[in-house]
Amino acid sequence: MGEFENAGRTWRPKGELVEANIHGYPEPGTGKAIPYGIYDLATNQKWLTLGIDHDTPRFAMASIRRWWKAVGSRRFPGATELLITADGGGCNSNRNRLWKVALQELADVLGLRHSICHFPPGTSKWNKSEHRLFSFITNNWHGRPLTTYQVIVNLIASTTTREGLLVKAAIDTKRYETGEKVTDEQMGGLNFSPASFSG
User: CA of 10: how far to CAs of 3, 47, 85, 144, in Å?
Assistant: First the structure.
C-alpha cells in the first residue's frame, strides 16, 4: 500500500496525472492490506474484509464471522449449516491446526454446523472467489495507486459487473498474532468428523 505504480490504465481529466513510484518496495509506515473474500454463490454477492496486520486463521475466521453477522444471518435466517470452500494452502490450509481450532470456535459462537471443502492441489482455477471476485476487483483498480485503506475499500465496494456483482467491504483493524501453537489436547477437544465423500 502506498504511492506505488499499479499496472493498467484509468481515465483522468487532462493534465491531472497521478504521480507514483515505479518500484513497489515496502516503505516504513505505509502499511499493508490483506484481503479475505467470501463469495455467496447463490446470490452473486461478495464480502471482502481488508486486514491490516497478518493473514492468520483467526483473521480468516473473524472475516467469516463479520460476514455472517452483517449479511449471512439476514440472508439465510433459517440456516443450520455453513458450507465453506477454501484453498488448500495458506491460513485456511486443511493441515493448519489453528484453522481447525478457529473453525470450532466459530461454530460454537454461531451455533451452526460447518462443512469444509478444500480444493485439491492444482485446482484453484475452480475457486469462484478468484474468478468472480478478485479478478474484477483488480480490474477495477488498474492504474490507481492504492494509497490508503479507505481508497482500497472504496475501489473494492465500487466493483460491479454486467451480471449484477455486488461487493461489500470492511476494514479489520485488529492485530493478529503469528506463530500461535495448538496443543494435542486442543486438537483432541475438537468436534470434527471426516465427510463420507473423500474424507
Answer: 16, 25, 34, 7
80: how many CB neighbours lie within 10 A of its CB?
8
What predicted TM-score, i.e. pTM, was given to this entire model?
Answer: 0.79
Q: Is the separation of the CB atoms in 37 and 46 below 8 Å?
A: yes
Give the type of residue at 91.
C
- The label of the residue with cell 493534465 reads 15
What does the alpha-carbon distance between residue 136 and residue 76 come to, in Å, rounded to a whole number?
Answer: 26
- b/e string for 135-158 if b means 16 or more Cβ within 10 A? ebbeebbeebbbeebeebbebbbe
Q: Is 97 exposed, middle or buried (0-12, 13-18, 19+ CB in 10 A)?
A: middle
Up-side HSE of residue 34: CA atoms within 13 Å toward CB? Answer: 18
Nearest to 45 by CA among 70, 65, 79, 62: 70
What's the DSSP call for residue 100? H
What tens digit of pLDDT does each residue of 155-193 get? 888 777 787 777 888 899 999 999 999 999 999 999 988
**Residues linked to residue 34 through DSSP beta bridges, in sequence order:** 51
